[in-house]
Amino acid sequence: MINKGLSRVGIFLLSMLSLLPLFVLYRLADAFYVVIFYVFGYRRKVVKENLVNAFPEKTLPEIYAIEKRFYKFLASLFIEVIKMKSISKKELNKRVKFKNADLVEAYLKNNESVLFCSSHYGNYEWVCMAIGLNFSGGHFPIYKPLSSETFDNWFLEMRSKFGNNMVSMRQTLRAIQANKHQPTIFTFGSDQAPSKEESNYWTTFLNQESAIQLGLEKIAKKTNRPVFYLKINYLKRGYYEVDCVPICLNPSETAEFEITNMHTLFLEDIIKEAPAYWLWSHRRWKYQPEPKISSTRVKDYDTMDV
Hints:
It is a single chain. By secondary structure, the protein is of the alpha/beta class. It has one domain (about 1-300). It is built from twelve helices and nine strands. The chain has a seven-stranded mixed β-sheet, sandwiched between helices. Strands 6-7 form a two-stranded antiparallel ribbon. Helix 8 links the parallel strand 3 (about 140-145) and strand 4. The longest helix is centred in the N-terminal third of the chain and has 24 residues, at about 60-85. The radius of gyration is 20 Å and the shape is globular.
C-alpha cells in the first residue's frame, strides 16, 4: 500500500512537471545529466561494458566520448518521456517527421496490413506515439508491461492517447487474429534480449554473441505481411526523422532466420553510424553462451585518466 501510494505521488509530480514547456525541461535535463553521470553514475558499469565490447576498434577516449553523449541524450530522453503526458498533436508532429510514409500507406489504402520493426534508438516513445497520428491503419504497438501496475497504467494512458492500441507481448497473436479484417500496423521492438528460456537463436550483433527475439519473423512469415524498419534519425535535441525502410516485402519466401538477420544487421549499421542514441544502459547481453571477451579492456577503461 505504501509503495502504491508513493507511486501515485510520483506520477502526480511527473504529470505536473510535464506541463512545463520543453525549453525549460531541457534546462532540467542538463542538470539531470550531471547527476546521473557524475554524481550517481547511473548504470555506468553496464554502459561501459556494453560500449567496450561493442567497439573493440575504438580507443578508450573515443568510447568515453560516446558514453558522455549517450548520458546527455538519456537525460533529454527522460524529460521527453515525461512530456508525453501533456504534449499536443501539433507539437508532436512538429518534432517527429516521417519519410517514405507513402510506401506504407500504399499497402494500408489497399486494405493490406504491415509490420514495423523498431528498436530502443532515439526517442522511440515519441515515434511510437506519432505513428497513430500519421498512418491510416490501426496501430498496435507490442510492449512489455512494467512491474509496477501503477506506473504501467500511467504509461499505457500516455502511449495510447493518439489512437495507439497497446498490446502486451503475450497477447500479440490474439490481437492480430481479432483485427485481421482491417488494415493494421503492428510495431515490434526487436532489439531487447529475450529471456534465457527463449534464447533460441544466436548471432553476432555488435561484436558479441547475441540472442535475438524471433517474434517479428514468426508473425511475418505466418501472415506474409511486409516488414518496414523504422530508422530513427536524431536531427537535433527534440527533433527526429523516421525513415520507413522496406526490408522484406515477401516474408513467406524467406529462409529461416533471414528476416531476423536482416533487421539485426540493419540496426547494427544504424548504431555504428551514430552510437550515442541507442539504449546502452539496457543489460542487452545479460545471457551469453560464453564469457565476455574483453574484461581486461573494461578494467583498463575503469582506470583511464580522462
